[in-house]
Design a protein that fits this description.
Structural class: alpha+beta
Number of helices: 4
Shape: globular
Oligomer: single chain
Radius of gyration: 15 Å
Helix content: 40-55%
Number of strands: 4
Largest sheet: 2 strands, parallel
Length: about 100
């Protein structure tokens, strides 16, 4: 499923963002690298690596759980929703990236 959806979704996201030349308009590619289901993570990591090499853009890996929170950070303006999660592997607890929820 992820393998079939990733490129059409990427095209849609770039289109909605008004990005016509990703190599010129994007400074960095971030990809969630774990924890998570290995099959899904591999699809994302391999796609991100290919885009990074093809567009000559730096690539960084981020924590999958933190990625979920920060992907929503742009949506929290005016929102009353706080995001909290725990990572039992690392035994950590994180709060929302939005300052007003910390």
């Amino acid at each position: 499923m992820h393998q079939e959806a990733i490129l059409p979704l990427l095209g849609q996201a770039l289109g909605e963002a008004g990005i016509n030349e990703p190599a010129a308009d994007i400074d960095l590619i971030a990809v969630t690298a774990g924890p998570g289901l290995i099959g899904s993570l591999l699809v994302g990591v391999m796609t991100a690596k290919a885009l990074s090499q093809g567009w000559k853009i730096p690539l960084i890996g981020v924590n999958h759980l933190e990625g979920h929170i920060f992907a929503n950070a742009g949506c929290c303006k005016g929102s009353q929703t706080a995001f909290h999660f725990s990572d039992s592997f690392r035994r950590t607890f994180r709060d929302s990236p939005c300052e007003r929820f910390r």
